[in-house]
Amino acid sequence: MTEILHKTVVLVGMMGAGKTAIGTELARLLGVPFVDSDDEIVRAANMSIPEIFARDGEAFFRLKEAQVIARLLSGPPGILSVGGGAFLSAETRTRITGLGISVWLRADLELLWTRVRQKTSRPLLRTANPRQTLGELLAERDPIYALADLTVDARAEYSIAEMAGQVCAALLSRPDVVQSAPYAGGTDGSAPAGTAGRAGSGAAKAQPPPRGEPDRPQTPSAGNERAAPRNTTAGAPARRNGGAK
Ligand SMILES: Nc1ncnc2c1ncn2[C@@H]1O[C@H](COP(=O)(O)OP(=O)(O)O)[C@@H](O)[C@H]1O
Ligand SMILES: O=C(O)C1=C[C@@H](OP(=O)(O)O)[C@@H](O)[C@H](O)C1
Ligand SMILES: [Mg+2]
């Protein structure tokens, strides 16, 4: 069995919730393209996010973020991780509801802080007391993230692979988004490259769970925080969506 994705799955939630890491893994499990709105903005601007905030301001970043998300949502179904502030825009939320499905990766302050504390790449946390700032943002934003279609709880003890499996399981409750379909490929019953068989049941166990590490310290000028090869549209394995949307 494999899965057919009908709509883009948009991962939302606070900085450090794991949207980028889990989105990457989820896309790999489902064998669909992965995109991250922050990466797209960084690539288009050829500047890091702190550089964009410093030179052009947050309002400009938010404008670009909304535009990039609109463009990505109009493409074929895949996994889209968005920056933590993106879902605050009512216009973006409406677009996501119309063209995709939102999944909130819900995490508490302690977990978020563990994940973001060592890194300087998030300009909103460049304050005198970044932990307090993170807590204030969390309190302001949680009621808005709660508007998402699905919620998956992030816990410190869940690896990235386990979290991706949890998201798969939640998505399987929505046949309008993800459908299990018989695999019509090889004769040996094995899944095609880039798939993890039936998501949700065994997806998280299909690979040894690579425990993610908290962000490492990095200079702001280092630009894009994710240097590893990504499962991007260009490099994605063949889709099994049948173009459905
Ligand atoms: N389930 C997890 N287990 C361990 N580390 C994780 C997990 N999810 C994310 N991380 C790590 O936490 C940090 C922040 O994750 P990231 O995906 O960048 O969050 P976001 O995109 O939501 O800001 C990264 O270093 C990532 O590898
Ligand atoms: O929460 C936010 O407002 C932001 C989150 C960041 O993305 P992540 O949520 O992927 O860290 C990035 O878009 C920018 O620093 C602003
Ligand atoms: Mg991210």
UniProtKB/TrEMBL annotation:
Biased composition regions of type Low complexity, renumbered to the chain: 189-206
Region (Disordered): 183-245
Binding site for Mg(2+): 20
Any one cellular-component term (Gene Ontology): cytosol
Subcellular location: Cytoplasm
Catalytic reactions on record: shikimate + ATP = 3-phosphoshikimate + ADP + H(+)
EC numbers on record: 2.7.1.71
Pfam family name, one: SKI
Cofactor field: Mg(2+)
Involved pathway(s): Metabolic intermediate biosynthesis; chorismate biosynthesis; chorismate from D-erythrose 4-phosphate and phosphoenolpyruvate: step 5/7
Positions with a binding annotation for substrate: 38, 62, 84, 141
One biological process term in Gene Ontology: aromatic amino acid family biosynthetic process
Binding-site residues for ATP, renumbered to this chain: 16-21, 122
UniProt remark on cofactor binding: Binds 1 Mg(2+) ion per subunit.
GO molecular function, one term: magnesium ion binding
Matches recorded under InterPro entries: P-loop_NTPase, Shikimate/glucono_kinase, Shikimate_kinase/TSH1, Shikimate_kinase_CS
Record function comment: Catalyzes the specific phosphorylation of the 3-hydroxyl group of shikimic acid using ATP as a cosubstrate.
The protein's assembly and partners: Monomer.
Stated family: Belongs to the shikimate kinase family.
Protein name: Shikimate kinase
Name of the encoding gene: aroK
